[in-house]
Design brief:
There is one protein chain. It is built from 4 helices and 49 strands. By secondary structure, the protein is mainly β. It has a 27-stranded mixed beta barrel. Belongs to the LptD family.
Length: about 850
């Protein structure tokens, strides 16, 4: 027997290298292909020639083929080709996976053997443990009475059970298959068993994509019955896969779903489809309020995005369904469906696009198909918009002018089968909205019989094809004089040409000539404008902050707007006059209308910046029609401009207050007030804040009646949401939407009838959850009012959704919709 003292590793540490530096270098060196040498390092090496063993003790480290075995003492039996390690034993694989044990008994290549009190930490922060384990060929590890978790141990008390763990009679990890098998397994939460499984398997943490069954989703619904979805994921190739999801429903049969995903060199696309042959068609209402007696129902949607080069890309997002009720009846979510909260109105928007973007330019060409998904939608009234082309390019202003020059343009073509009307009187000749009824239930809007004229009715969209092209050239430049005054002169030229090919055939279209010229004559329009904006900020610095008072004045000179009412208005119907549009050169939202005449916009703004980050601002202003024709007092087919606050020569007052006393609290208020008596016309209040563990927001809005637009009652309500972190891991949340204007509407539309409470709760949401590094558990209860087929009535819809997600193991969900009333095209 002989003894050899301090080895190379100790000497190298004296030159300033860390142990981890040496370990990494040695591991890399022994991982080279064909390098089968065993490198042993320790403070002491003992050679026993009689027993043909080598014992390394004192920070012993053995390197072989990228693996590193460390222990207080390691003994290599050369006759048996076995390695024994004890005392703080640790085996690090070439991939970074670490095995901890009281004792290792391995072959000399570390691939086979037995391990006592094994603990494994993977590179993905998951952990295996077992009192006894067997390692075979470096490929399979069998844990007897093993446990598995993806949770970090408690920092204060590592002996505490993790949030969750799987405890099994045997856990088998096969590296080549990248799969972990669990036999006679129990799922525990905080040490308490909650579920038992005789057998299951899951991909190991090295797997990003692997064929197999995904977590199920459970369903309970009055119209569908009880059900379960069992997805199967098929990883066909690294760049494409297929997910097949049969959903077994006790009342309706089997709903089949499939999703194909494909990634290419320059982009990706996906196709999703669902379909069912219904067993109980009586569960759904008859058209137009439900799917009725349809045997087969289904949906297809697809989306793609492809890069042409560093500036150009193209793609699509398309949805089609057998009927407007399918997606909601079967809870089949589609990304391009928009649900307008508790109003009950839903739509899908299908589009294809080509988009380009440079440093100072933008181009977008696309087409739109709108599909109405609520009972009140008449598809013939909804347009197809194709193509819609937008272009914007910005240049440095020419010559001595300097500044910025902008060239923009738009081309739009809209096709609609049926004119969309909205009545200003009801069938009795009194103010109100008129709706066509089927089986005594209201559906789509139109003019009241005998009132097809521009005085009592207006047009939201024309039948036929309407094409328009627009070009806009604008210049502006800002000067600052020695006194600090800012002067911004600007000029623009806008030209439009319209090609209306309107239809007078079909239901109700024969009345269209009463509203607009349908001869098909080409229409041209030209609008030059010059003007300037003046600002003079006065700044005061005090001990408690910086104050800025800034008067603002703007003057725009233009000729009168022409072709009002001769050109349809499809894209400029949304007109909101508030602080955000006070100093807009053109306050119309789209290209079909353009402001004319000479107008002055004036206002004053105060801004405060506190020394501790506090902020506040106040804006107050008004707009004046100085000369020429007031565009907002001369309505088009959609009556845009009336009741907007701009239809008088002297506009309503607009204001804005914004405050942020602390970085975590923000408040903003916007208002519009009558210029005659300062009566409130429009008010929006919004507050968002975070205090300690509470995050909350509230939005309140109140809009005065706009009878010129068919809105005869005050619209008022608020939405509030809050989330409280009870502990760092547990939270509760909630929200409520309240309709404060419903009682006024009931009194107006149903005089003498039964009136509901002044406060109508439109939607309530309550939730709670738990989340940590390995677990996400959430439950949400919602109770909302859905606008139904009955005039002036609302039914409640309740939904309970539960979702549990365990990191690395997957997620499971359950949703339940109890019966409360007839909603969403379902007979409850």
């Amino acid at each position: 027997m002989s003894t050899l003292g301090a080895t190379a590793s100790v000497i190298e540490l004296a030159y300033g290298q860390t142990a981890s530096d040496i370990l990494a270098r040695k591991t890399q060196a022994t991982a080279k292909k064909g390098d089968d040498k065993l490198l042993v390092e320790s403070r002491e090496l003992v050679y026993d020639r009689d027993n043909d063993t080598v014992a390394a003790s004192g920070n012993a480290q053995l390197y072989y083929q990228g693996r590193v075995l460390e222990a207080d003492k390691v003994t290599y039996d050369r006759k048996a080709n076995r390695v024994y390690a004890s005392g703080n034993a640790k085996l690090t694989e070439a991939d970074g996976q670490v095995f901890y044990a009281d004792r290792f008994e391995l072959t000399d290549d570390f691939k086979d053997g037995f391990i006592d009190s094994l603990r494994i930490e993977t590179t993905d922060r998951t952990r295996f443990a077992a009192p006894r384990a067997e390692r075979t060929a470096g490929e399979t590890t069998v844990f007897e009475k093993g446990t598995y978790t993806a949770c970090e141990p408690c920092k204060d008390d590592p002996s505490k059970p993790p949030t969750w763990q799987v405890r099994a009679k045997r856990i088998i990890h096969k590296n080549e298959e990248q799969t972990v098998y669990y036999e006679d397994a129990t799922l525990e939460f905080w040490g308490m068993p909650v579920a038992w499984f005789p057998y299951f398997s899951a991909p190991d943490t090295t797997v990003k994509r692997k064929s197999g069954f995904l977590a199920p989703h459970y369903i309970a619904s009055t119209a569908l019955g009880y059900g379960v979805s069992i997805p199967y994921f098929w990883a066909i190739a690294p760049n494409y896969d297929l997910t097949i999801t049969p959903t077994f429903l006790t009342r309706q049969g089997v709903l089949g779903q499939a999703e194909w995903r494909h990634r290419l060199v320059n982009g990706s696309y996906n196709i999703r489809a669902a379909g069912i042959f219904q067993q109980d068609r009586s569960a759904f209402l008859q058209p137009p309020f439900g799917a009725g007696d349809k045997t087969f129902r289904g949906s297809v949607d697809t989306a793609g995005n492809f890069v042409i080069n560093d500036k150009w890309q193209w793609g699509w997002d398309i949805h089609a369904a057998s009927d407007k009720w399918f997606n909601q009846n079967y809870k089949y979510n589609v990304t391009n469906i928009t649900d307008f909260n508790w109003t009950g109105f839903r739509e899908s928007v299908s589009t294809m696009f080509l988009r380009g973007q440079g440093e100072r330019s933008f181009f977008d060409a696309r087409g739109y198909y709108f599909r109405g998904l609520s009972y009140a939608d008449w598809q013939k009234q909804l347009p197809v918009a194709a193509p819609v082309v937008d272009y914007d390019r910005r240049f440095t202003g020419p010559g001595v002018l300097g500044g910025e020059l902008t060239i923009g343009g738009n081309i739009t073509t809209i096709t609609r089968e049926q004119t969309a009307y909205q009545s200003l009187v009801n069938a009795a000749g009194q103010p109100g909205n008129y709706q066509v009824k089927v089986d005594g239930k209201a559906t789509y809007d139109t003019c009241a019989p005998g009132f097809y004229n521009p005085t009592d009715c207006f047009v939201r969209g024309v039948a036929g094809t309407y094409s328009r092209g627009s070009v806009d050239v604008a210049w502006r430049r800002t000067f600052i004089d020695p006194l600090g005054q800012t002067w911004t002169p600007f000029a623009s030229m806008r030209g439009d040409v319209a090609f209306p090919a309107l239809s007078t055939t079909g239901q109700y279209n024969q009345y269209l000539p009463l509203f607009i010229d349908t001869s098909g004559e080409v229409i041209g329009r030209f609008m030059p404008a010059v003007g300037g904006t003046y600002r003079y900020p006065f700044v005061a610095q005090t001990d408690f902050g910086t104050h800025i008072v800034e008067p603002i004045a703007q003057l725009i000179a233009r000729p009168n707007e022409t072709q009002i009412g001769r050109m349809p208005n499809e894209d400029a119907q949304s007109l909101v006059f508030d602080d955000t549009t006070l100093f807009s050169v053109n306050k119309f939202s789209g290209y079909d209308r353009i402001e004319g005449g000479t107008r002055a916009n004036v206002g004053a703004q105060y801004t405060y910046n506190g020394p501790n980050g506090g902020f506040g601002s106040f804006l107050f202003g008004q707009s004046y029609q100085v000369a020429g024709l007031n565009s907002y007092a001369n309505p088009d087919l959609a009556r845009t401009g009336l009741d907007s606050g701009l239809s008088d020569a002297r506009s309503s007052y607009v204001s804005r207050i914004q405050m942020s006393p602390f970085g975590n609290i923000n408040f903003i208020a916007r208002g519009r007030f009558s210029q005659e008596d300062f009566a409130l016309q429009r008010l929006e209040l919004q507050a968002v804040g975070t205090y300690d563990r509470l995050t909350a927001s509230i939005l309140y809005a109140r809009y005065a009646p706009q009878p010129e637009l068919g809105l005869y009652t005050t619209r008022e309500g608020f939405v509030t949401q809050a989330k409280l972190a009870v502990t760092p891991n547990i939270y509760v949340s909630g929200g409520v939407a309240v309709d404060l204007g419903r009682q006024d509407a009931e009194k107006f539309y149903n005089p003498g009838g039964q009136i509901s409470n002044a406060i109508s709760i439109s939607a309530v949401t309550v939730g709670a959850g738990y989340t940590d590094d390995c677990t996400t558990l959430g439950i949400i209860y919602s109770n909302s009012a859905k606008q139904t087929y009955s005039e002036g009535t609302k039914d409640r819809v309740q939904t309970v959704m539960l979702r549990l997600e365990l990191r690395t193991l997957g997620a499971a969900g359950y949703s339940f919709t109890p019966s409360i009333g007839a909603t969403d095209g379902v007979n409850q």
